[in-house]
Amino acid sequence: MKLKKNIATSEAGFVFNPGTGDSFSVNQTGAEILALIKQEVSPEEIIRILTEKFEVEADNAEKDLDDFISQLYTFNLIER
Amino acid sequence: MKEKQKSRSIVVAVTALNAIDSPGPGIAVIRCLREDPEFDVKIIGLSYESLEPGIYMHDLVDKTYQIPFPASGTDMLLTRIREINEIEKINVLIPNFDAELYNFIRIEDRLSEIGIRTFLPSAEAFDARDKVNLAKFAEKHHFTIPPYRVIFQLNEVKQISENLGFPLVVKGKYYDAYICNSIFEAEKAFYKLQAKWGVPVIIQKFIPGTELNVAVLGDGKGNALSIVAMRKLYITDKGKAWAGITIENSQLTETAVRFVRATKWKGGCELEIMMSADNKPYLLEVNPRFPAWIYLTAAAGQNQPAALAKLAMGYELPEMKEYQAGKLFIRYSWDMIVDINEFQKISGTGEL
């Protein structure tokens, strides 16, 4: 799982795709997940980090991460 | 600390000073020229009407002269430019209106004889990208364009509209376009465009998608020296970008490179592209001059108008490769207050 080349992200949760000009806002959790994806951290490891940091069960964290990643696919921000 | 001296003084004449709701590119071109670190420019504005805002922008335009409307022909234009040149000794002339370009292309050599350099496309390249000829051009050079028809009479609107299907875009010969959803709307648009720009009128199938523009500078030998792409973020009811953002997109770059190679385009131009939902770039139009948003190219790191002035002056320039994606422009309106004496002077004497 890899963000597309040149996708710009900020700590505040702003995401800009320079290939299309699309921009998006994500919440703090989304920004943290994006930062982890950028560092090429595996989905399993992201789930572990989320369960450590937030009061969330692994099953729920996995489901939320799947939803988030499918949105990243939809908006063409992640390599297929 | 002493400011670095600019190395060369040049006089540049620029047209299209109408910074209104459908703005001409002149003011943006002038801003670019003034920001060039090498040139110390004196700007001569060339205007058609007394209410073109640039005439009164004295911090940007040093002196303005009125010139005859394009319909007056090349002899009158040349006579007027010669008069102005006697006073101003123009080095470079940059015309920026579609409707005047053909005249300037025709007198290019005679301007050169009196020391005025231009950097304009050939008449052949200019004609090839004309809206009326775009289908032939696209077919020859394998560009994807929306289906369209060129019409001369109102009674053609109905059948062609039915063949193409709604929605469709009815476009003027030089400027203006209306998205129409019925035969009634298409006929109304035909009347308006015929009255304003004459015939032919173009009826084009509407392609839904993202509107993208590319500003390009060709060297006349088939090379694109600068390509800067912009996505429209805010579009006025006239279809003009009121805000936009630079993007980097290989499909757009490739389209621009192919266009310049095919036409050996010399000078500035703007490709209007609709990126369809399935990511296919449709070439809608090619404007044969810089767009009104050209200052964004300088802001993003590729000052196309300054480069054009240098090419006109005979400089050899390398291809500009990098620019900053994610740079926005946001246009705004500003009410200038002008003394009646100034208006009287430009209206009465043809200069200010």
List its traits.
heterodimer, A: 80 residues, mainly alpha, globular, B: 352 residues, alpha+beta, Rossmann fold, D-amino Acid Aminotransferase, Chain A, domain 1, Dna Ligase, domain 1, six-stranded antiparallel β-sheet, four-stranded parallel β-sheet, 14 strands, 32% helix
Characterization of the model:
The complex is a heterodimer of chains A (about 80) and B (about 350). With about 80 residues, chain A is mainly alpha-helical. Chain A has one domain. Chain A is about 50% helix and about 10% strand. Chain A is built from 3 helices and 3 strands; from the N terminus they run βββααα. Chain A has helices at about 30-40, 45-55, 60-75; strands at about 10, 15, 25. A 3-stranded antiparallel β-sheet of chain A has the order 1-2-3. In chain A, a hairpin with a 6-residue loop joins strand 2 (about 15) and strand 3. In chain A, helix 2 packs across helix 3. Chain A starts with 7 loop residues before the first strand and ends in a 6-residue tail after the last helix. Chain B has 3 domains: about 10-120 and about 335-350, Rossmann fold (3-Layer(aba) Sandwich); about 125-130 and about 210-330, ATP-grasp fold, B domain (D-amino Acid Aminotransferase, Chain A, domain 1, 2-Layer Sandwich); about 150-205, 2-Layer Sandwich (Dna Ligase, domain 1), CATH 3.30.1490. The longest helix of chain B is centred in the first third of the chain and has 15 residues, at about 75-90. Chain B has helices spanning about 25-35, 75-90, 100-105, 110-115, 125-130, 135-140, 155-165, 185-195, 250-265, 295-300, 305-310, 340-350; strands spanning about 10-15, 40-45, 65, 90-95, 150, 170, 175-180, 200-205, 210-220, 225-235, 240-245, 265-275, 280-285, 330. By secondary structure, chain B is an alpha+beta fold. In chain B, the strands form 3 sheets. Chain B has a 6-stranded antiparallel β-sheet with strand order 13-12-9-10-11-14. In chain B, strands 3-2-1-4 form a 4-stranded parallel β-sheet, covered by helices on one side. Chain B starts with 7 loop residues before the first strand and ends with a helix. The interface of A and B includes residues 8, 16, 18, 19 and 20 of A.
